[in-house]
Write a structure and sequence with these properties.
The complex is a heterodimer of chains A (113) and B (793).
Chain A lengths: L1 H19 L4 H13 L3 H24 L5 H9 L5 H27 L3
Chain B lengths: L1 H20 L8 H5 L18 E4 L7 E6 L4 E4 L3 H27 L4 H4 L4 H9 L2 H14 L1 H18 L9 H6 L8 H16 L4 H10 L2 H7 L31 H4 L22 E7 L10 E9 L1 E2 L4 E7 L2 E7 L8 E4 L2 E7 L5 E5 L7 E4 L2 E4 L1 E7 L7 E7 L5 E3 L13 E5 L7 H10 L3 H8 L7 E7 L4 E6 L14 E2 L18 E3 L5 E4 L20 H11 L6 H8 L5 H12 L3 H6 L1 H8 L10 H17 L1 H4 L7 H10 L1 H6 L1 H15 L7 H5 L4 E2 L27 E3 L2 E5 L5 E5 L17 H6 L3 E2 L14 E8 L1
Parallel strand pairs in B: 1-28, 3-7, 6-23, 11-20
Antiparallel strand pairs in B: 2-3, 2-28, 4-5, 4-22, 5-24, 5-25, 7-8, 8-9, 9-10, 10-18, 11-17, 12-13, 14-15, 16-17, 18-19, 19-21, 25-26, 26-27
Helix pairs in contact in B: 3-7, 3-9, 6-9, 13-14, 17-22, 20-24
């Protein structure tokens, strides 16, 4: 339950943070949330990962579907990916990775106290 | 232990963020780019985006309305000139900012700022050509005239007001990919863009190659291979047009040829890839029919300038209305006004006029500070060029300027083999000319007289300017600023140590060759020789003839012409070259080859000489011709210059000795052709030539390749691999103007927009859009209008 709530909180605050700060502020949000929620390292990683991944997936889809995949198809080409869905997947994985690492670090620091 | 673990986690996180937040090699900063909130995803424009909006700008004097039609062509309605050009600047930036930015940086030799050391040579070439020097000179002229100053100031304000609305979040995609940021627009950037066009159109000359050939070939051979006045030309100004006697005295060569044209082969070792050598493929067609030749009884004007095929397109289509102006056509993002188009009263079009306006002078120097001129040592004027390089120290060099112009090449630059004597360049584009004033006046011209007044300000790049009006007049001018030269002046590299070789006086503009309402009822230009031999002034240039022959032939037989006939002619792919030369080539095939290449020869024998997209015979001919031409002119071609295709054609058709001597080449090249085509599976012509509309940053997923279009640079539909008809326009000057057009691109520069490429298919198929020419009134009710901008002061 705590993990689930932290995922939602991460997604919300990441969205907020990204409107005011650089994209990597997502790592700091994940760090703070797992720190405050005292999550264990494994759970902290996945909370960060899914929090950001869900957020990035949602925003990508909100942009990609009305765009009829024009942009994602071309960007996929630049990255030598066979289709736009893989480009979305790469976006989500990169976001998730950064979120996960931020969360992991947050829980590791928490352990010091 | 725990501390260490926490530290390791944090370090890994920070390291990965750092890697994803910074470009690595040619890779962009991946994390920053993929971020869906601020990264590339912001360029994903909704397919059904509503572009309508109302906003305020403190820069405006009065309100402005912009109507966007169903193709996103902007129709601006303003109450004064200032607001008109402000809005044009704003719209250009809104749709095409990155393109405007990168093209002007390229013009100024500033690409290394973004791409690093690999483009330093390009940047140095731009600087040493005097591109910035030239733009600064023109800027002075533009800002000196109150009309163009007002125009360009307002335009710049408009661009900058749009840039002020941007932050990283909404930068055009390419900025995020290439990792740089928009910078403030300036009037100088507009001047740079215009010089970029001048360079594209007048920057290539054959002076060095011809000098080398002059040293190696007997003069009779040289004249035969590179005739000064092309035999059989159908000139731009029809044969028989009478010219007034020259006002200026025609100068005589001031000394013997050998003393005017120094030997250069031992001091200049250019490679064939030198940037000044002529490029084939840049050219254009335009023509006009008088009402007597058209079905509607109204004059028709057509134009298709052949330029580099790029995305975003070079052109941005728009209509501009204000008191005293209602003009429609294509504009250059980065410059105010309409370059090719029509207004309520008249229409005009441009093709390049290849009269030579760029010459080279060989200098004598003892040191890097002075050069010998008329027996005295004159000091160089030094212009320090600083080129910022990404991740490196700024490169700086002083370019020497002489009485002729900048020293473009010397032992420090250009070729590895070295250049043992400095070469200075004298180029019309260096002058402080104000072509923008010509555009300003052209856009407002109502009569032939106003048209001629306007084009007096168009000095460089020289253009064949075609005109048709509602009154039924048609006219054509070989327009530009030219020099009253003695015979052969500037044809070869000249001795730069004497005032004898300096350019003489300017030919008065009203003496430029022109023709109005000829008896034949039509006028046409396609980069061919400008006049017959009765024109009193001497000139030379890179003229080409094949397209002009075909156009004149088609127009001559055309009566009761319709706009559909014009579409057909603009998309014509009949090869005059093939129809003349292929029968000769086939005559000399050996019986051995006749057997071996049976299938290919069979196709060629029944071919109709159309370079059609799906024609295999077209591929056979073009590839065969390519190898044959290479082989016949192998030695001559080492100079970097080949005789024109049409000249080779004439020699082969008219001179049986010449043709007989080519027998070995004809047969050998046929084998080479078969060999090289055997490696290609799909032998249809479009696939072999591969017409590509390439993104300006050469990003292939943003480009279109293998377009199913026929043609080549020797036929009217001049679609080569990378150049082609960049804007096809047909305008019938009836009471209600009936205009059609299409260009290979789309109105938006954003690769994430449906309007990025939506005209390409029609362009490939040779189909046209009916252009929406709105009346000059503040309220419109046309059903084609989709979106509206209301901009209030």
């Amino acid at each position: 339950m705590r993990s689930f709530i932290s995922i939602l909180i991460i997604a919300f605050f990441c969205l907020l943070a990204e409107y005011y700060f650089s994209w990597w502020s997502i790592a700091i949000v994940c760090f703070l949330v797992t720190f405050l929620f005292k999550l264990k390292p494994g759970k902290a990683f996945w909370a960060g990962f899914w929090g950001v991944a869900i957020l990035w997936l949602t925003i990508s889809l909100f942009k990609d579907i009305p765009n009829h995949h024009i942009l994602s198809q071309r960007m996929a080409g630049l990255f030598h990916l066979p289709g736009y869905s893989l480009f979305i997947l790469v976006t989500v994985l990169i976001g998730g990775l950064i979120g996960g690492l931020g969360g992991w670090s947050g829980s590791a620091v928490r352990k010091l106290f | 232990m725990r501390v260490l673990r926490a530290l390791v986690f944090i370090l890994i996180t920070v390291a990965i963020i750092y890697l994803l937040n910074n470009p690595i090699g040619t890779l962009p900063a991946i994390g920053k780019l993929l971020d869906p909130v601020n990264g590339c995803w912001t360029s994903a424009e909704p397919f059904h985006k509503n572009f309508s909006s109302s906003f305020k700008s403190s820069q405006l004097i009065s309100g402005v309305t912009v109507w966007f039609d169903n193709r996103m062509v902007a129709h601006i309605h303003a109450n004064n000139d200032h607001d008109l050009y402000w809005t044009q600047g704003y719209i250009h930036a809104y749709f095409r900012l990155w393109q405007m930015d990168i093209q002007t940086r390229a013009a100024a030799g500033r690409i290394s700022e973004m791409l690093g050391e690999k483009t330093l040579k390009y940047d140095r070439t731009q600087r040493r050509k005097g591109m910035v020097f030239a733009a600064e000179n023109s800027l002075k002229a533009m800002e000196h005239d109150p009309r163009t100053k007002g125009m360009v100031d307002a335009y710049t304000e408009g661009v900058n007001d749009y840039i002020a609305t941007l932050c990283y979040h909404n930068y055009p995609l390419e900025y995020k990919l290439m990792g740089f940021a928009p910078e403030r627009w300036t009037n100088l950037k507009t001047a740079l863009l215009l010089k970029y066009m001048a360079d594209d159109l007048t920057g290539k000359t054959d002076d060095v190659a011809l000098s080398i050939l002059r040293e190696t070939l007997p003069s009779k051979t040289l004249d035969s291979l590179f005739p000064e006045h092309f035999p059989g030309t159908d000139p731009v100004i029809p044969e028989g047009t009478t010219y007034e006697p020259a006002i200026l005295k025609i100068p005589q060569p001031p000394a013997s040829a050998d003393s005017l044209f120094p030997k250069i082969s031992n001091v200049i070792a250019f490679k064939n890839d030198q940037s000044d050598t002529r490029q084939t493929g840049i050219g254009s067609n335009n023509w006009a029919l008088s009402g007597a030749r058209t079905k509607a009884g109204a004059a028709i004007l057509c134009n298709d300038p052949h330029l580099g095929l790029n995305l975003p397109s070079l052109w941005y289509e728009m209509q501009m209305q204000a008191p005293g102006i209602n003009v429609y056509g294509v504009s250059l993002p980065g410059a105010p006004g309409i370059i090719i188009g029509f207004n309520d009263s008249m229409s005009w079009g441009l093709t390049n006029n290849y009269r030579d306006v760029k010459d080279f002078y060989l200098l004598k120097t003892n040191n890097n500070n002075t050069y010998l001129f008329d027996g005295k040592q004159l000091p160089f004027t030094k212009r320090v060029e600083r080129i910022a390089i990404k991740d490196k120290d700024t490169f700086s060099e002083a370019v020497n300027y002489t009485i002729h112009g900048p020293v473009s090449y010397d032992e420090h630059f250009y070729d590895d083999k070295g250049i043992k004597a400095p070469v200075a360049m004298c180029w019309m584009a260096h002058r402080g000319t104000n072509e923008l004033l010509a555009i300003y006046l052209l856009n407002r011209a109502r009569t032939y007289i106003e048209f001629t007044d306007a084009i007096q300000h168009f000095e460089c790049p020289a253009q064949n300017m075609i005109y048709a009006d509602k009154a039924g007049n048609i006219a054509l001018w070989g327009q530009g600023q030219f020099i009253n030269k003695w015979k052969d002046q500037g044809k070869y590299v000249m001795d730069g140590t004497t005032s004898k070789t300096l350019w003489g006086s300017d030919i008065p503009m009203n003496e430029n060759p022109h023709c109005i309402n000829p008896l034949q009822g039509y006028l046409a230009s396609a980069n061919q020789t400008v006049t017959d031999t009765t024109y009193p002034y001497w000139y030379n240039g890179n003229f080409i003839e094949l397209r002009a022959w075909r156009i004149n032939c088609l127009l001559d037989s055309l009566h009761a012409a319709t706009v559909q006939d014009m579409f057909h002619i603009q998309n014509d792919v009949y090869s005059v070259l093939a129809s003349n030369i292929l029968p000769v080539m086939l005559e000399y095939i050996t019986s051995e080859n006749e057997n071996k290449e049976k299938d290919m020869l069979k196709e060629l024998k029944k071919w109709n000489y159309d370079l059609a997209a799906d024609s295999k015979a077209a591929s056979y001919f073009q590839v065969w011709w390519y190898y044959m031409n290479e082989e016949i002119w192998h030695d001559v071609g080492k100079s970097g210059l080949y005789p024109l295709n049409e000249r080779t054609m004439q020699l082969m058709v008219c001179d049986s000795v010449f043709a007989g001597n080519c027998k070995a080449a004809i047969n050998h090249s046929l084998e080479e052709c078969a060999d090289s085509l055997s490696k290609i599976k799909n032998k249809e012509w479009y696939n072999v030539k591969n017409t590509t509309v390439k993104h300006l940053a050469k990003l292939m997923p943003f480009s279109y390749t293998d377009l199913q279009i026929g043609g080549w640079n020797n036929v009217i539909n001049a679609a080569t691999s990378d150049h082609g008809p960049s804007w096809r326009m047909v305008v019938q000057m009836s009471k209600d103007i009936e205009a059609y057009g299409v260009y290979p691109g789309g109105q938006s520069g954003n690769p994430g927009s449906r309007y990025y490429d939506d005209f390409i298919n029609n362009w490939v198929k040779g189909e046209y859009y009916r252009l929406l020419f709105l009346p000059n009134v503040p309220k419109q009710s046309n059903s084609k209008i989709k979106y509206t901008w209301s901009i209030e002061p």
